[in-house]
Structures are given as structure tokens and as C-alpha cells.
Amino acid sequence: MTARAREADTRVRFSTLFRRGRPRSIKTKENILSASYELLLESGFDNVTIEKIAERAGVGKASIYKWWPNKAAVIMDGFFAAAADRLPLPDFGTAVEDIYVHASGLCRFISSAEGKMITEIIGQGQMDAALAEAYRTRYIVPRRLEAIQLLERGVQRGELRENLDKELSVDLLYGPIFYRLLVTGEPIDDFYVRSIVDEVFKGFRS
What we know:
Layout: H1 3-15, H2 24-43, H3 50-57, H4 61-67, H5 71-83, H6 95-111, H7 116-125, H8 129-156, H9 166-184, H10 190-201
């Protein structure tokens, strides 16, 4: 996809997040999120500045600082808003299938050109506390809470043990994915995800 086409696609995605007749402040916020996402894809995190976001969005820097404390926060909110429609919460009737679809969808996204920004952001977050806080609270935590919700459904339906430690279970399921993503660089394809889910769920079932 060309840069022009990607920019047009991004603006369309963001425009669908808000209704017609939305207040001016919401339009401004939408423009800022869209601008931050476009700049992230074009230049990488290091090269994005509040000044560049403001210029692209057609606003003053004060408008950005009204809603976000720093560039890490606005960039991660822009990234999450653009990615949200690609990571829907599945409901296929069983916890094992829901987790498999959720995890494999995450893997496909983080393996894409856009998703690879997550690797860059996590790496830079080791030296930037504000960035680390932003991606944890705005991206990692929401994904984690979704996985916990899927496991809770399984417990309620009687598929999974009532005493299941859901926090630890999420670590067991998703930890290997990020280990390969950030450490070994080995493939994280659907077969790998299915193998993790099938093995881990052997200890989850009621």
C-alpha cells in the first residue's frame, strides 16, 4: 500500500469511530490520533514529535497536552484506536476456540508491517519509562483483560476449573508469543498458537 493510500485508509478508519455531527473537540481529538498514527508508521517512534503531530493535525500543541501528558501517550492511543477493529473479542461458544482466535489474531497483527511497531515500541520502552507506561496501560493491559474475560466465560460455562488462576493462565498462554516476538525471532504462526493453546488447556479444564 502506498503512503498516500495508507493515509487515506487511516483517515477513513478514524472517521468511523465517531458519529456525524460530533462536537468540535471530538473532531480535534480524532485528527490528533490520526496524525500521530500516520507519523508513527511513516517515521518511527523516535522521529515523531508533539510539534509534528500538531502540524499534521492542524492544531496547537496546547490541544494535544489538553488530553495527553506526553508524545508516548498520544501515539499509543492513536495506535490502539487504529488497531482495535482488527482485534475483535471473539465468542465462538468455547473458551479454547475463543482464546485461539484471540491469540492468533494478535499474532497476525503483530507480525504485520504496522504491528511490528509494537516490537520497536517495547524495545524503546526499556529506556523510556513514559513510553513503557503508555504501551502497558493503553495496549498490553486491554489485551490482557480481554483474555481474562474469555477465560472467565469458560469458567462460568463449566468448561474450565473454578479455581483457575486466570492471571497466571494468561501468562502461560501469551508469554510464549512475546518470547518469540522479542527474544528468539522464531515464527509465531497459527500452528504455533494452536499448539500452545491445546497444551495449556489440558491443565485448565474442569
